[in-house]
Write a structure and sequence with these properties.
- The strands form six sheets. The protein has a twelve-stranded antiparallel sheet, covered by helices on one side. The protein has a four-stranded antiparallel sheet with strand order 12-13-16-17, with no helix packed on it. Strands 1-2-3 form a three-stranded antiparallel sheet.
- It has 514 residues and is of the alpha+beta class.
- The protein has a domain of 84 residues.
- 26% of the residues lie in helices and 27% in strands.
- The longest helix has 24 residues.
- Strand 8 and strand 9 form a beta hairpin.
- The chain starts with a helix and ends in a 26-residue tail after the last helix.
Length: 514
């Protein structure tokens, strides 16, 4: 009752009312923190800073002209505030304090939400006994997880899934307008989030495992697991228009019924026509309701794509999911020139489409222009068990496999294939066998005083700092291009059934499987 007169006063603006309400929520809910810096006057710079004090924090700040801040920041704040209304803490014996978050409803629906999910009670209890001691820890490679939460795909294949809408990069390379070039390229990086919303876990690759892909957009793609502890992958894709290179590593923080995933990686995109190099900094991801409730994914924060050649950049803000799903999937932002003046506004939903429109220096749409769609998600199969797209099924198939597939390819993993066929028991057995053999391989290597050396990527001396950790960079060495050319040009390669190839990423091929 003390704050109501302030909220309804004629002297209190809608923006100030929102801030007052936020402060009240902060006082009532110790899990939510909010700071606002700047007087908000016309043309002034301002900074919003959001904090969740339970371990996952947005800590996303940005500077905008006032009108741009009004459009993006207040909307984000509103969605963020009302998320507090859709959280419940469990009081079930053994699970006290775990949070269930309902992305689609209010707090009234949360008890029903907590009863949903893919876990059977006995599986949930067993999983929790193992995992509860890791709360607050990075669990990237600490624990062995049950097959029932996996999808029949590895992380190396998931890296290739980004290539579905590679035609956007072809358009970026052909484009003469430097700002539209960023529109195309950023939409390409947005497009993969439709696949990232799947809540099944991909298999961790075995050290030395690879994935090859051809027959899509003129692209040759190769990825390789280059490190086991910490788990790291490297990937390279190339066609006549672009070169894509990534060193991928993640850090995690397990919070009980959720996990935060921080992208400690480096992604570089080179457009061949002008030699422009783009650098990607993606937002973190949060996977909610791991044990209780329906698992769902959110990625609130900034995605920044910078033209390292010119200094132009695009900043796209992923809205946090709010009450009754408000703001969920929404993306808003601008393409800026090197002087940080907005040139093109972008808006859309990462699970549907992205659009753009030229704007003035205040971020307002230019007269006589209209929103134009640049990307829309392709039709997807109905009622697919793993929510796969048609392209995801192609990635798992041998239709995208090259001539003479490497024996280390992810498609050949027996655990992945068994899961794809619906045989969870065999998938679990094969997964354990592969993990045991990987441990034996390491013991053998240590006994010989040897280190693992990737085939297709070289470890460099370059250390790339990121928001969450430093990264050792791996660089594509070009040997796969030579290998592929030699195989494709050879008439002596016999036609064989690729499904008959035994999965073999091992350095010591004669090491007996456990």
């Amino acid at each position: 009752e003390n704050i109501l007169p302030l909220l309804t006063s004629n002297r209190t603006s809608a923006n100030d009312s929102l801030l007052i309400f936020a402060k009240l929520l902060c006082e009532q809910n110790q899990k939510l923190g909010l700071a606002y810096i700047g007087d908000g006057s016309q043309g002034s710079e301002a900074e919003w800073r959001f904090l969740r004090l339970d371990g996952f924090h947005f800590d996303q700040s940005w500077q905008r002209h006032d009108q741009i801040r009004q459009r993006v920041s207040v909307k984000s704040l509103f969605n963020f505030i009302f998320r507090a209304g859709s959280v419940i803490r469990l009081h079930i014996v053994g699970y006290e304090g775990l949070e269930v978050i309902n992305p689609d409803g209010s707090s009234e629906d949360l008890e029903d939400e907590a009863r949903k999910g893919r876990w059977k009670q006995e599986d949930r209890d067993g999983y929790w006994k193992v995992m509860q001691k890791y709360i607050g820890s990075d669990v990237t490679s600490l624990v062995t997880l049950p097959v029932l939460i996996f999808e029949p795909m590895t992380m190396l294949q998931k890296m290739a899934e980004l290539m579905e809408y590679s035609h956007l990069l072809d358009l970026a390379d052909e484009c003469e307008d430097p700002y539209m070039r960023l529109v195309y390229a950023s939409s390409f990086f947005i497009s993969v989030y439709f696949a990232f919303q799947r809540t099944w876990k991909p298999f961790n690759p075995i050290l030395g495992e690879t994935y090859e892909m051809v027959n899509h957009g003129g692209i040759t793609f190769i990825s390789e697991q280059v490190s086991h502890h910490p788990p790291m992958s490297a990937g390279h894709a190339e066609n006549e228009h672009f070169i894509y290179d990534i060193t991928s590593k993640v850090k995690t923080k397990f919070l009980g019924n959720s996990i935060d995933i921080y992208p400690v990686g480096r992604t570089r995109l080179t457009l061949k026509k002008d030699g422009v190099v783009l650098d990607l900094a993606p937002p973190p991801t949060k996977v909610n309701n791991l044990i209780f409730g329906r698992t769902w994914v959110d990625s609130p924060g900034d995605m920044v794509l910078t033209n390292l050649t010119t200094g132009d950049k695009v900043v796209l803000y992923f809205q946090p999911c709010g009450w009754f799903g408000s703001g969920r999937y929404e993306v808003d932002g601008y393409v800026y020139n090197s002087a940080e003046e907005p040139k093109i506004l972008m808006t859309g939903k990462w699970n549907e489409s992205m659009s753009y429109q030229p704007c003035d220096s205040e971020g307002e749409p230019l007269p006589g222009t209209e929103l134009k769609e640049v990307w829309r998600v392709a039709d997807v199969p109905e009622n697919d068990k793993f929510q796969y797209t048609h392209f995801a099924h192609k990635i798992n198939s041998f239709d995208t496999a090259p001539k003479k597939l490497l024996a280390s390819d992810s498609r050949l993993r027996p655990d992945r294939y068994a899961l794809e066929q619906g045989d969870l028991s065999k998938a679990g057995f094969e997964k354990s066998s592969l993990e045991e053999r990987q441990r034996d391989e390491k013991k053998n290597r240590v006994a010989k005083g040897q280190e693992f050396t990737p085939r297709w990527f070289d470890k460099t001396d370059e250390i790339c700092p990121t928001t969450w950790d430093d990264l050792e960079v791996y660089r594509y060495n070009g040997k796969y291009t030579e290998h592929r050319a030699a195989v494709d040009n050879s008439d002596s390669v016999e036609a064989i059934d690729v499904k008959s190839i035994e999965f073999n990423p091992w350095q010591y091929e004669n090491l007996a499987a456990a």
